[in-house]
C-alpha cells in the first residue's frame, strides 16, 4: 500500500456497532424475499444459537485486534428478534453528526431498534441530530438502511436496488434530508427475482468498488453505475453472481491505525480471484471473518457491522 492509501477515509469508518445474539435462528418471516437464507441444518436450535454467539464473539475480537473500535451489544432474545445480529439495517450514521433510523419491512425486524445504541452514540460521539423514519411503516414505506442503500460518502451517492425493502418515496425523503443523490436500478438473481438488499451485490471502498454488474436487469444502467464509480476515482472490480452467492459483495471497508481493512467472511474471501484480491490489496488489507452460522440467515459480515461515521467526543466533551 502507498502512503496515500494509508490515510483514513470518511468512506471507511474506524468504529462499528455489533449485536451478539443469544437465541439466533434463521428468520422464516424474512425468507419470503431473502433467497440467500438457508434451510435449518438439522442441528438443534440451541447448538445453532451457541455457534452464532461464538462467531460474533470471535469476529468482534478479531476486529479489535486489527485496530477497529467495536461497540458490542447483547440481544438476550426476549423480544424475539432473530435478525438482530444485522444492526446495519435499522440505523446509519453520517459525517457531521447525523443519524438515521429506518422503517423495516418485516414486523419482527422492527423490534430490533433499541434506544441504548442511540444513547451510546450520543454519549461517545458528536451527534447533531437523529432523524427517525420508522413512522413510515404504517403507510407501507420501507427503507432498510445500509442494506437497501450502499453509500458513496465521498461523492454523496446512494446506490439502491429496487425492492420491497427500498421504497422510492422513503428513499427520496432520506436523500433530501441527508444530501445524497439516489441512483436506483433493478436487479435479478439466478432465479430472476429481485435481489433483496443492495449490499449483497455491491461494496464501495475508498479506492475500489465490488459490483455484480451481471445482476443488473438493464446492462445500460449497469454501465452507468460503473462509469459513475469510475468517475469518483475508484477501480471497479466486477464480481460474478456465483461470488454474490458466496457473499463476496457483502463486505465493508474499515479504518484501522495506519491502514484500511476490508472485512468480509471467510467464504466470501475464498471466492475472490487472485486478480481481484490484488486490486483490493493495493489499498486495503483483507480481513476474513468466520461466520458460517450467521450466513444461514441470509446476510454476512457487512450486515453484521453498522459503521460509525461520527466524530468521537474528546475527554471532558
Automatic annotation (TrEMBL):
Pfam families linked: DDAH_eukar
Top-rank taxon: Bacteria
InterPro entries linked: Amdntrnsf_FN0238
Protein name as catalogued: Amidinotransferase
Organism field: Ottowia testudinis
Amino acid at each position: 500500500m502507498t502512503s496515500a492509501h494509508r490515510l483514513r477515509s470518511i468512506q471507511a469508518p474506524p468504529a462499528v456497532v455489533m449485536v451478539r445474539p443469544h437465541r439466533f435462528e434463521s428468520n422464516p418471516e424474512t425468507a419470503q424475499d431473502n433467497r440467500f437464507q438457508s434451510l435449518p441444518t438439522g442441528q438443534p436450535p440451541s447448538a445453532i444459537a451457541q455457534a452464532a454467539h461464538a462467531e460474533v464473539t470471535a469476529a468482534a475480537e478479531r476486529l479489535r485486534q486489527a485496530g477497529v473500535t467495536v461497540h458490542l451489544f447483547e440481544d438476550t432474545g426476549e423480544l424475539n428478534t432473530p435478525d438482530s445480529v444485522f444492526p446495519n439495517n435499522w440505523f446509519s450514521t453520517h459525517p457531521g453528526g447525523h443519524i438515521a433510523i429506518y422503517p423495516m419491512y418485516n414486523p419482527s425486524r422492527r423490534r430490533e431498534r433499541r434506544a441504548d445504541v442511540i444513547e451510546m452514540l450520543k454519549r461517545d460521539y458528536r451527534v447533531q441530530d437523529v432523524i427517525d423514519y420508522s413512522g413510515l411503516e404504517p403507510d407501507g414505506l420501507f427503507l432498510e438502511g445500509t442494506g437497501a442503500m450502499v453509500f458513496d460518502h465521498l461523492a454523496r451517492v446512494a446506490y439502491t436496488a429496487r425492492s420491497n425493502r427500498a421504497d422510492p418515496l422513503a428513499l427520496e425523503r432520506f436523500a433530501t434530508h441527508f444530501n445524497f443523490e439516489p441512483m436506483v436500478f433493478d436487479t435479478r438473481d439466478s432465479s430472476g427475482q429481485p435481489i433483496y438488499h443492495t449490499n449483497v451485490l455491491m461494496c464501495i471502498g475508498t479506492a475500489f468498488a465490488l459490483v455484480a454488474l451481471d445482476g443488473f436487469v438493464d446492462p445500460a444502467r449497469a454501465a452507468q453505475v460503473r462509469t459513475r464509480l469510475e468517475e469518483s476515482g475508484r477501480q471497479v472490480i466486477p464480481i460474478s453472481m456465483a461470488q454474490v452467492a458466496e457473499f463476496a459483495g457483502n463486505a465493508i471497508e474499515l479504518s484501522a491505525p495506519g491502514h484500511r481493512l476490508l472485512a468480509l467472511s471467510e467464504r466470501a474471501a475464498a471466492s475472490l480471484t487472485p486478480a481481484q484480491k490484488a486490486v483490493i490489496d493495493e489499498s486495503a488489507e483483507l480481513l476474513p471473518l468466520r461466520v458460517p452460522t450467521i450466513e444461514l440467515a441470509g446476510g454476512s459480515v457487512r450486515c453484521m457491522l453498522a459503521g460509525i461515521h461520527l466524530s468521537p467526543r474528546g475527554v471532558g466533551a
